[in-house]
């Protein structure tokens, strides 16, 4: 009796599908927006260069 499928062919097809999904994800507007490249201000693009904390929080000495 002959096999209905080849394990190698199945793995190749799954790899191709994975590549297509990743390519679609990386070119999506949602991915660009979440990465800070969607032409909108996000928390990543609004960080204050003079802030003490990496998240942009003010220094404790400057708080009232």
**Strand elements, count:** 0
- Regions with little confidence, pLDDT below 50 for 5+ residues: none
Helix percent band: 40-55%
Please report which band the strand proportion falls in: under 5%, 5-15%, 15-25%, 25-35%, 35-45% or over 45%.
under 5%
| Mean pLDDT metric | 76
Please provide the ordered H/E string of secondary-structure elements. Answer: HH
Note the total helix count: 2
Shape: elongated
| Structure classification | mainly alpha
End-to-end distance, in Å?
A: 81 Å
Main sheet attributes: strand count, strand direction, barrel closure: none
Radius of gyration: 23 Å
Description:
This protein has helices spanning 7-26, 29-34. The protein is mostly helical and 64 residues long. The protein is elongated, with a radius of gyration of 23 Å. The mean pLDDT is 76.
Descriptive labels:
0% strand; 2 helices; 64 residues; elongated; single chain
What is the element layout, followed by pairings?
Blueprint: H1 7-26, H2 29-34
Short synopsis of the structure:
Helix content is 41%, strand content 0%. With 64 residues, the protein is mainly alpha-helical. The N and C termini lie far apart (81 Å).
